[in-house]
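Reading a protein record of the kind used here takes only a little practice. Think of the row as the fold of the chain written in a discrete alphabet. With that in mind, consider the following protein and its fold in token form:
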Amino acid sequence: MSKYALSIDMGATTAKCVIFKGNDIIGDFVVETKTMNSLVVNIKTRFVAKCIELDIKPKKLSFVALAVCGIIDPVTEKVIFSANLNIKDYDIKSEFQKEFEVKNVSVMNDAKAAVYGEWASAYKRKPNSMMMYTIGTGIGGGIILNKALILGDSSGLPSEPGHGGGFQTKYKCNCGLDGCLEAAASATAIELQINEVARKSTSELGNLYKELGRDLTIKDINPLFNNNNKEVKDIFIEALEPLAKQIAIIQHVLDAEIFVIGGGPSLLGEELVNIIKNHIDKYILNDFGKHLDVQISKTGFSSGTLGAFEFAKERFKY
């Protein structure tokens, strides 16, 4: 008998939903995450419609796997807090169990899901250790050690490399802490810096800003980045230095096989990695630096849904 599963990566603006038959993706859809009041119902409605299109029965689901942009309680699987979704102490697991009439629902942090997806799908579970950064609205992260996802032994909440540490002094973080690299190196922070420069620019960057008549995104400036536009490159060089400092410190302790960069800025490719590596060289001992491997994510924006699926698959013996 065929097995089916639904994996959902719930982000700040959309929920990316993927339907699996066995280990194969057979369908996908996207739902806007404007309000949590109707989100679960909206996902169920779209799921049922997709099942009709695929000629499968909605009640045949083995499990629902959720990757959520927020801090997740490792025991209850409640969302302790999600600034992006504007929810606190939210029992999202029970909501999905009720709406989808399925007992097996797994909830995990989206950054943990991303590293697990990258490790399990792109690297076929081969690396013994790996760390991944997801650079988007904020900066999340996760670690694989001894071929297992680090879930934490104290708070159970590790997934927040973007906060704390005093890695920069120029920008104040919304979390209230000083020196967060998220305030400088997240996609949101980088785009703020891009537009601040663009408004005053009289070169190509300023021309693009005037031409589009709106704030620029990282996707918009991709051609300028690839053409080595100095204004754009200088923004990234400054913004990514705090991230490089943290990678150097972590590598001195963890000695990971691979560091992976995911999220929107990863679309800029190898030159983004080169900027990060050039900074790391200033902060890392040579014996560690010469073995350091930094890669762009191979799973791209699918890492979250893949990771949530792979993690739940093992948990529920799918």
